[in-house]
Amino acid sequence: MKIRLFTIPNLLTLGNLVCGASAAIAILTNGDFKLAFWLIVASAVFDFFDGFAARLLKSSSAIGVELDSLADMVSFGLVPAVAMFSWYKEAVQISQLSDCVMGWGAYLTLIIVAFSALRLAKFNVDDTQSTEFCGLPTPANGLFCLSLAMLAQMGEIVVAKEIILLISVVMAYLLISPIRMFALKFKGFGWKGNELRYSFIVACVVLIAAFTKFAVPAIILIYIVISLLRWIINSRKA
What we know:
Elements: H1 8-30, H2 33-57, H3 62-94, H4 99-108, H5 111-125, E1 132-134, H6 138-153, H7 161-176, E2 180-182, H8 195-211, H9 215-237
Antiparallel strand pairs: 1-2
Helix pairs in contact: 1-2, 1-3, 2-3, 2-6, 3-4, 3-5, 3-6, 3-7, 5-7, 6-9, 8-9
């Protein structure tokens, strides 16, 4: 069987992976959450367009599916965990606490990378997630964690170290939760059937224009709340 490695979708996926690896390096070597955030934004763009290109060019492949999950594991699994770990460590240093106090708490943030792996493995074998997601998508979690860490480093928000741990645990749970979350996958470009998607995109544009720096965490929170309410309503109807 001939396997094509360097297709356009695969190259876009590799772009996602390289940006994610660069984001991890930015955090671990320079503690630069701002650069890491924008690199993860770039990863998310690559992640969106690799699937789009595969469908457009009709070049979907088994290797592309596996490569996509491997790239997502780095960009949206490892990097947010590293960001929360480093953010927690900075919060402890600001509090002037000893390293031994930091110990277990810092490593609890790594629950994100473990549950991201579970989320991606589940996605690969769950054929009910073709039009919607079961659990929070890893790119949304990555963007949320990186945006908060960036805002904290810029002095825009102040978050206690205990809250950083709470955020890590809650976001990790959402990754593997049974909540059905809508996907921005358009089967057509008409309004009917895409009402929620178009409304959400418009809301995102408004939030970005109005809140700029705080738009990303606000968008992710709104996405989670809307998906949760939609899931509850649909469950009651069923």
